[in-house]
Amino acid sequence: MDSSFQDIYARRIETGGLQPDPAQQALIPGFQRMLDALAAPPPRARGLFSRRAAPEPVRGLYLWGGVGRGKSMLMDMFFEAAPLAGKRRVHFHAFMQEIHAGIARARKTGTDDAIRPVAEEIADGLRLLCFDEMQITDITDAMIVGRLFEKLFEAGVTVVATSNRPPSDLYKNGLNRQLFTPFIALLEERLEIHELAAERDYRQDRIGGTQVYFHPADKAARMAVDSLWEELTGGGGAPLTLRIKGRDVVLAQAASGVARCDFWDLCGRPLGAADYLAVAEAVRVLMLENVPLLSSENYNEARRFVTLVDALYEARRQVVISAAAPPEDLYVEGEGLFEFERTASRLREMQSEGWGTGD
C-alpha cells in the first residue's frame, strides 16, 4: 500500500476537499487496521462455505451517524485505497433489489435454499463488500439479511457499512421484529460499531446558501452543476440501479449519497410514485439536469416531474436543477396548470438556505 489512511485524509485536507474534523480523524486507526489486514493474502480456502476451510474475514466496520457527517466519504476513501481487486461498493437499497431478483431466479430451479446460491454468486472472488446507506424498512428484507450475511461472513467477505442509525435501531418497530434481532447481534459480533458524531452537517455547509437552481440549461449551468458535483462528491461516481417492482430505474451517476441524472432519464420514462419514492429513499441530494419547458404537449413528462418533486419534497431531499426557465415559468399553459403552481412553490422553497435533508 503506497499511502497510509492518515496520509490520504491529510491530502484531502491540503487540496481543500476536506476540513479537519476530530470525529472523522478518530476513525482513521480503524480504517488503517482494515487496510493492513486486507493487504495480506488470505489463507487458501478448500471450500467456499465450509466453516473450517473458508478464510476468516477481516473484522469489518459499521459506521453510523447523522446526515452529511462524512460517513460515505470516509468509506469511499477506504474503498479506493483497499489494495485488492475482489472488492465491491454498492448502495444497500440496490443490493437488496439484486438479492430479491437472484432469489426469484433460484426458486425457479426448485432449490430448497434460494439464499445459498445467491450468496455464493456474490461472494465468488470477493473479499470486501462496502454498503452505503444501510437501512431495513421492509419485512421481506428483514427476513433475508440474517442468513444472507451469515453466508457472506462464512465465505470470508469483509463488510463495511454506513447508516444513519445504530444496528439496534434497524427495522425499529417493524413487524415481527423479534425475528430480526439475531441479525443485529450478528452485526455487533462481526463488525466494529462506531458512531461518527461530527457536530456539523458538511453536506449542508457545502450546499447551504449556494445557488442550486440554474436557468437556462446552457453551458454555464452545466459548468455550475459540474462544480457542485465535484464539491459534494469529490468527482467520480457510478450508475446506481434501483430495482422497483420488476423494472430498473437508473441514476446515471451516484456517489456519497448524491445522484445526478437527466430530466428525461426520470421523467421521460413511464415511472410512477413508487419509483420516485425509491429515488428519494436512495439519495440525499438529487441533481436533475435539462428540465425543459413543460406544457400540454409533454403533459405526461410534466405530470411525472410534479410527482418526482413531491416525493423529494416530502422526504426533504436537497435538489440541484438546471432548467429552461425559472420554476414559475416552466409550465404556463395546459391541463394541470393549477397543480404545477404548487410544484413551482415547492421548488422555490427547496432553494432556500434552511432547506435540508431528513433521515
UniProtKB/TrEMBL annotation:
Is ATP-binding among the key words of this record? yes
**Cited InterPro entries:** ATPase_AFG1-like, P-loop_NTPase
Q: Which UniProt keywords apply?
A: ATP-binding, Nucleotide-binding
Gene3D superfamilies (alphabetical): P-loop containing nucleotide triphosphate hydrolases (3.40.50.300)
Name any one GO molecular function.
ATP binding
| A GO term from the CC aspect | cytoplasm
What's the name of the protein? Chromosomal replication initiator protein
Which species expresses this protein natively? Answer: Profundibacterium mesophilum KAUST100406-0324
Q: What is the lineage of its organism?
A: Bacteria, Pseudomonadati, Pseudomonadota, Alphaproteobacteria, Rhodobacterales
